[in-house]
Design a protein that fits this description.
This protein is mainly beta. The protein has seven helices and 22 strands. A hairpin with a 6-residue loop joins β18 and β19.
């Protein structure tokens, strides 16, 4: 009820606050309501259903010829459960900024969302903003991006643009660590407690926690990007100094094993109850999530060849850190190469992308491979004059033989209301990035109302 009350109040405020025609401003309100149910209850403590809802209100305006502004905010409310209902409610300032336009440069200051790169739904060079991974990658990338406080300058030199960024308080990926189907460690606290041989061990598992060692004010991130054209080719070169968006975890061996693999943690405990109790009483159940500094150098290009759009991205990250299979941490450079092509023929749209990853590390890595190839395919076809669109999004990791399949049917009821009916299907081994969520297959219905 608290979620419904807050959403209703915010929607009422948005309707009242819409500027009159005399004001040089435009207001947009988007309400999304989604319900989903699990296709099979095949894991302990798994959520049987969830409801994900979001209200976004944005006001764009101008103040004279040189100044423009945007103010926007989001209310997010989630309900989920397997009998008991859990509720999460977040209110956040989204894109909110002031922009000054001059003849040869623009300067923007505020809470910004920046878009780098050419590939769709993939993160190679597009690392300026952190993401909301509360539902892993189920929301589209545009919806996952988190606004960050920063200053952005764009300098125009003919066909070339130089973009400079500085962020005094970087954001990190929003991650749920425990007690959710999409949490980093899923339901491992309760699973470990269920399997524990005694109450002392059970209490240890239920006390597991993550201390987030996040960047703070003064941990300044900065970067630059040069965009230009050469004939029919648009290209860009970029560099970004920032905190790694996915954390690595450090802590004692028992707590790390308990978080990642409860069954393995139980094998580390002494068989004698008294000895086991003494060990656990002297062992911290908390691990630390750290976000090390990294540098990503990138390049991207886009052109057309006949009816096809062709795009490519290259990203080389220096000193990235990875969790190893023995739950240690190692440092290695990473290279990502992505190539894509898309075509539109009447009502049909197709997009195929391939991404190659190289990690220069010889140790066995957890949730990552030294080499990996991923294929991404998008198909859409508009029927009934654009009111009904069947679509398919799928990603296939050839190295891990893991896949994410998202068929959906979108119905455009009016210019303001669309309905999406679809599936999220994930397959793969438990120790792979996709496969760890292979029990989360679900069917969903999403309603989007905008005005």
């Amino acid at each position: 009820m608290r979620l419904i009350t807050v959403l209703s109040a915010c929607l009422s405020v948005a309707l009242v606050a819409r500027p009159s025609p005399a004001v040089a401003a435009d207001t947009k309100v988007v309400l999304q309501v989604q319900g989903a149910t699990d296709l099979s209850h095949d894991e302990p403590h798994e959520d049987r259903w969830d409801s994900r809802n979001q209200l976004e209100v944005a006001v764009d305006g101008t103040a004279g010829d040189a100044l423009s502004y945007k103010v926007s905010g989001r209310v997010k409310g989630d309900l989920y459960g397997d009998g008991n209902v859990d509720e999460d409610l977040d209110l956040e300032v989204y894109e909110t900024y002031l922009k000054y336009r001059a003849e040869r440069f623009d300067l923007t200051v505020g809470n910004l969302v920046v878009h780098w790169g050419k590939l769709d739904e993939l993160v190679l060079t597009d690392n300026v903003n952190a993401q909301d991974l509360d539902q892993f990658i189920l929301p589209w990338k545009e919806d996952r991006k988190l606004a960050s406080p920063m200053a952005q300058a764009e300098i125009y030199l003919g066909d070339t643009t130089i973009e400079l960024l500085v962020s005094p308080h970087p954001a990190i990926n929003r991650i749920t660590f425990f007690d959710s189907d999409w949490a980093f460690f899923r339901h491992n606290r309760e699973i470990g407690a269920d399997q524990a041989p005694d109450s002392v061990s059970s209490d240890f598992f239920r006390s597991l926690g993550v201390n987030v060692d996040a960047p703070d004010w003064g941990d300044v991130e900065y970067g630059g990007r040069l965009r230009s054209t050469a004939g029919e080719v648009d290209f860009a070169l970029s560099a970004l100094v920032y905190h790694q968006r996915i954390p690595v975890f450090r802590g004692n061996a028992v707590a790390l094993a308990a978080a990642f693999d409860p069954e393995q943690a139980l094998t580390l405990l002494p068989g004698d109850p008294a000895t086991r109790a003494a060990l656990l009483s002297a062992t911290s159940p908390e691990i630390t999530a750290r976000y090390p500094w990294v540098v990503t150098l990138g390049g991207e290009l886009e052109t057309t060849i006949g009816d096809y759009g062709v795009r490519a991205e290259l990203a080389h990250t220096l000193s990235a850190q990875y969790q190893t299979a023995d739950l240690g941490v190692t440092e290695a450079d990473q290279t990502l190469l992505g190539i894509g092509a898309d075509v539109t023929i009447d009502a049909f749209y197709g997009n195929l992308q391939a991404i190659q990853q190289w990690v220069q590390e010889s140790q066995s890595l957890l949730l990552a491979r030294q080499q990996a190839i991923t294929l991404v395919l998008v198909l859409e076809y508009e029927t009934l004059r654009g009111t009904l669109t069947p679509a398919l999004y799928t990603a296939w990791d050839l190295g891990d033989n893991a896949a994410y399949l998202r068929p959906r049917l979108q119905y455009k009821a009016t210019d303001q209301l669309t309905l999406d009916l679809g599936l999220h299907v994930i397959t793969g081994d438990d120790n792979t990035t996709l496969g760890q969520f292979d029990a989360n297959d679900q069917v969903y219905l999403l309603a989007t109302l905008s005005f």
